[in-house]
Amino acid sequence: MSMKIRGKKVLVFGSGISGVAAGQLLLSEGAEVILYDGNASLDGAMLRAELLEGAEGLLSSQEEKEKLPGRARVVLGDFPEEELDTLALVVISPGVPLDLPVVKRMHEMQLPVWGEIELAYVYGQGDVLAITGTNGKTTTTALLGEIMKNYKESVYVVGNIGNPYACVASETKPESVIVAEMSSFQLETIHTFCPVVSAVLNITPDHLNRHHTMEAYIEAKENILHNQTAEHTCVLNYEDEVTRGFGENTNARVLYFSSRRKLDRGIYLDGGRIIYRDKEQVQICRTDELQLLGIHNYENVMAAAAMAIAYGVPMEIIRKSVKKFKGVEHRIEFVAEAEGVAYYNDSKATNPDAAIRGIQAMNRPTLLIGGGYDKNSDYEDWIRAFGGKVKKLVLLGQTAEKIAAAAHKLGFEDTILVETFEEAVKTCVRFAVPGDAILLSPACASWGMFKNYEERGDKFKELVRQMS
């Protein structure tokens, strides 16, 4: 399905990387584009130049390129309400809450409201393999991307991993494979999006400041299965009560994975071996052959392998790919060892459940840096998971006092509150002795202090390099 938008007016709501990518794709398809952002302090001229430059790169006709400037506008600050009646489509960025009054009005007017993922899916080609879950999706997406690149020539790794799907949609071909990491925000605004193989890795509380209830968050995640039929496959975590329930309600074929029990059909961890079982039992690899640490990473390997098996990738390609894979930046990433102290960057642990996995992967006494933006999370399970490993908990950001209070309530008193990120790292260094680890695993988002978790992780690595 594709929507006829040539000559039609489309509003792109949000000027982040996915919004700009959506605007560029729309311009290349002949639409009139209004790129809107409520932040009046942005550089509108620069955003418009970026829109035009990207769209021009997608066009081959000189005549079409010359028409572009007349079809691109940028509006900042107050929302252009007078434009609503003139729009054929709204493409909304994942960071824009859907309960804003103006978005509700769009729905009341029966305006189509798509996300950038839906737009790219409609105008792209090829098979989509899509992954969601609270934790592990970036690692699983990156690993599946490597497996697919070892199997097919035309492979794109897109979505929440940092590369907008709309950037590559016009390059895709019928034989392409698109491996997509999907956040709950992106899944709220799909309509026809339908992966050939989907996966939901796990569900734990996250983003409740946006979704308001756990039920709404779960519903957003379950959208990944919404359009799948019996021709498609969904890969689900058998040990997660919510995702196991998804398997009972989907029309797709279900392939489970488990880190706790042997399955009659699916992928499971059996001691130190990862096994695929269907009609017969096949060993994919031993865990000591992997370059990834921790049960959570074995689950990520199982999910990626299950998706590849469902797509028909030969076992030998899967086996070689998972053994070579080194993991992703900012996820329990070893940075350096200096004076006997090991430094780990787990900036991607933006919620307590991810941070639990970070501390569980540590095998030495740990000085832990936590805190950041408040997503209405509960931190008690994270603190209980310390298991005697954490020597000092150094806290900063909006959640520092909330986390410290939770720690003290549970009898963990070794907390230090600091004002700056640099002070947090220096404090850990001051208390560390040879044989310790210093771990950045904040259990919180980075907003308010950094643009994103990548910038936070890069800053940590920069400070470590300076001190070591």
Give an account of the 3D structure.
- It is built from 18 helices and 20 strands.
- The chain has helices at 17-28, 44-57, 62-67, 101-108, 116-123, 137-149, 165-168, 184-187, 208-211, 214-222, 241-249, 295-311, 315-324, 352-360, 380-384, 400-409, 421-431, 453-467, and strands at residues 9-13, 32-37, 72-76, 89-92, 113-115, 127-132, 155-159, 177-181, 197-200, 233-237, 253-258, 266-270, 273-277, 281-286, 333-338, 341-345, 366-370, 390-395, 415-417, 437-440.
- Strand 4 (89-92), helix 4 and strand 5 form a beta-alpha-beta unit.
- It is of the alpha/beta class.
- The strands form 3 sheets. It has a 9-stranded mixed sheet, sandwiched between helices. It has a 6-stranded mixed sheet with strand order 15-16-20-17-18-19, sandwiched between helices.
Total E-strand runs: 20
Strand content: 15-25%
Largest pleated sheet: 9 strands, mixed
Structural class: alpha/beta
Number of helices: 18
Helix coverage percent? 25-40%
Short structural summary:
With 468 residues, the protein is α/β, with parallel strands linked by helices. It is built from 18 helices and 20 strands.
